[in-house]
Amino acid sequence: MSEVPPTNSISQQSDVDPGTYLLNAYSKEQLKNVSVTQYRLDVEGGVSGDRSSFTGSAAYWLDQEHGTPVSTAGKMRVVSATSLSQPVYVWGQRVEAVEEKKVTLSPENPRERETLRNFVQSCLRRAVPDKKYDYEFINEIVRREPEFTSEKFAAHPKHEVRVQITNAGTVLAHIESGYTLRSRMTLDELYSESDNPYGVKAAHDPERYSTEGRGGFVVGVTYTILTLSRTPVHRSRRCTKGSPTRSGVKS
Questions:
Q1: pLDDT confidence of 199, banded at 50, 70, 90?
Q2: 116: closest CA among 131, 105, 132, 127?
Q3: Are the CB atoms for 170 and 13 separated by under 8 Å?
Q4: Cα–Cα dist 196/216, whole Å
Q5: Percent above pLDDT 90 for the chain
Q6: Is pLDDT above 90 for 95?
């Protein structure tokens, strides 16, 4: 990709204003008339839950299994540029991709443009070095090694990537960089039983008691901790009295 020129002509072709980012780049080649194969998802026993969510999960696991971009194409349909020959397990059920037909994707079609965007995001996600970064989606790529540390926290470089496709097939990449703080202490080392940690988000992970935390130190907890066990600050979860719940963002 190349650095975006001063003109706003390319940005104006995208669906939404990407906002202000540290770096903006665009592809020299355009995605036009991309040939892919459409598959039907054959599930043993059928799907009892939400079929759209199931299709999204199946596309992800087929992508991971075959090492190639896979995107949804409606309920119980996926598309890929390569063969999907191996079955996967989704929600505990065996799923097989059955070839239906060949289709051509054009960026001028909004739905097909979204499929192309999913393909690009998949390729970018796969290009991130696993040994160097923690990530699930490209909107939060965190380097495992901290840039600097203190007694209580470590600052890890974090990158956010947003992808757009123009009507002409140009790929736009918007990148923001910053830091995320990860705790190096357990909660009982940070607070005493009488403290009210207002404005702090913490996680409850019994499997990691007495071990170093991995998550961010962010706003969230709104209740007083009456009894503190050796609970590390792990992945971010928004807590309410008596019932902690997860929170997250997908790309």
A1: confident
A2: 105
A3: yes
A4: 19
A5: 49
A6: yes
Residue 203 has pLDDT above 80, yes or no: no
- SS3 percent helix, strand, coil of the chain, rounded to 5, is 20, 40, 45
pTM of the model: 0.65
Q: Is the dihedral of CA 26, 17, 124, 43 positive or negative?
A: negative
Q: Tell me the C-alpha distance between 137 and 71, whole Å.
A: 15
Q: Is the pLDDT of residue 43 over 80?
A: yes
Cβ neighbors of 248 (< 8 A, separation 6 or more) are 236
CA distance 186 to 233: 6
3-state secondary structure of 118: helix
Both tokens of residue 143? 């380097």
Residue indicated by tokens 């007495």? 210
Strand partners, 79: 38, 71
| Torsion angle of the four alpha carbons 210, 216, 220, 225, in this order, in degrees rounded to the nearest 10 | 20
Residues 6 or more apart from 78 whose CB is under 8 A from it?
38, 39, 41, 55, 58, 59, 62, 70, 71, 72, 84, 97
